[in-house]
Amino acid sequence: MSKRVVVIGGGIAGMTFAHTVKDKLGDQVEVTVVTKDPFYMTGPSKPLVVTKEQSYDRMVRGYEEAMAKGIKFAFGNVSEIDPANRKVKLVEAPSRAARVKEVEYDYLLVAPGVVYDGSSINGYEDYSYQVTNVYEPGRLDLLYQKVWSVKEGTIVVYAPPMPYRCAPAPSETALLIDTVLRYRRVRDKVRVIHVDANEKPQPGPTADIISNIMKERGIELITSRKIVEMNDKEVILDNGEKLPYSVLALLEPNRAPDFVIEAFGGPWLEVRSPQDLRSVKYDDVLAAGDVAKLPFPKNQEIAFESAKFAANKLFEEFGEEPEKVKYWFIGWIYVGNPEGRLESLSIQFSLDFTTKPPKATKDPEPKRDYTLQKDRWEQGYLNKLFHPKDW
Ligand SMILES: Cc1cc2nc3c(=O)[nH]c(=O)nc-3n(C[C@H](O)[C@H](O)[C@H](O)COP(=O)(O)OP(=O)(O)OC[C@H]3O[C@@H](n4cnc5c(N)ncnc54)[C@H](O)[C@@H]3O)c2cc1C
């Protein structure tokens, strides 16, 4: 009888794991992906919506081709994992009368990504309607509307304490906002302040380059300061400083979803090692992607690589050869355009975690070609995972 492999989260880690396992184990397994929406929206190019350089049709993919290949899907919001009885509970969607459904597993991969949690900021609950950012589609649209209409005032951008998803995205946000304001010829009337809860803009190896570019663009940088309070007009930092804002681009602190914390503890799902992604508590539960507690940045390449390592652990159980994989990546950071043209430049860096300490490389010169390379890289992932004939 085939083993039931259930995957929570049809994103980068979940889809990488589902394809890898189905391809190698075939009829030995029944792979079911349980995921919230019947579509996936990519992350990396979301910031370019602000400068009108990316459109939604290039960012969204469906699961139909993966279904045609034999991977099963259950669409719904997972509300509970019962690891003692090997069950996942979900509220089916889309449905008017939402039903709770149970899915049973022999092996479970947990890969639902992160939640953005503003509860540590006083006033957040009442004033979260003011929050824009590049992370969530609705808030991204609000940011777009505001950046393209603001005429004067102050824009505050906030990066929470690490770890959070995609280390450079808050800095990218500040630099792309600067570009739009230059394009609209209102830059001299709008202050842009980047507040970073960390010692320097992330990721660390590129902090000097990003800080210099922010200085050249007149973006005010405040580091090692958390936003602890907000209302509809100002944010308050942990040293008591008040920053009035016209537009607030705030990323909340990140953590694992509640159903993960309730089943395994938190704030991230603890695994045995970066190569052995079984939960420290259960042999039949694996984790990959942003939800896993790993000593690496939370990004797409690490999500892909951790999902491959998770699949290799399963292959051991089936007596199959592991696939070759290692933790390293090349990344690109959008830095906008100093002349206010809607053609963003990017810087390139790489991190290799196979050496101790990790080896970093970087090119401090912003280039248009790096933005185009990032686009090819992102589209390549989307094609590979959602048009599996390219896998
Ligand atoms: C603005 C932005 C910019 C980024 N830039 C970069 C970049 O330049 N480079 C880079 O490498 N990475 C970047 N990333 C990060 C990258 O997108 C993530 O690290 C990667 O997607 C993590 O993969 P994952 O599988 O863990 O999570 P995801 O890809 O987010 O997938 C999680 C899936 O789980 C589903 N899910 C969540 N909760 C539930 C639930 N309760 N029940 C059922 N399903 C659920 C979600 O709907 C989603 O489909 C960026 C992300 C964002 C948002």
UniProtKB/TrEMBL annotation:
GO terms for molecular function: oxidoreductase activity. Pfam families: FCSD_central (PF21706), Pyr_redox_2 (PF07992). Residues 4-128 form the FAD/NAD(P)-binding domain. InterPro entries: FAD/NAD-bd_sf (IPR036188), FAD/NAD-binding_dom (IPR023753), FCSD_central (IPR049386), SQRD (IPR052541). Transmembrane segments: none annotated. Residues 142-201 form the Sulfide dehydrogenase [flavocytochrome c] flavoprotein chain central domain. This is FAD-dependent pyridine nucleotide-disulfide oxidoreductase.
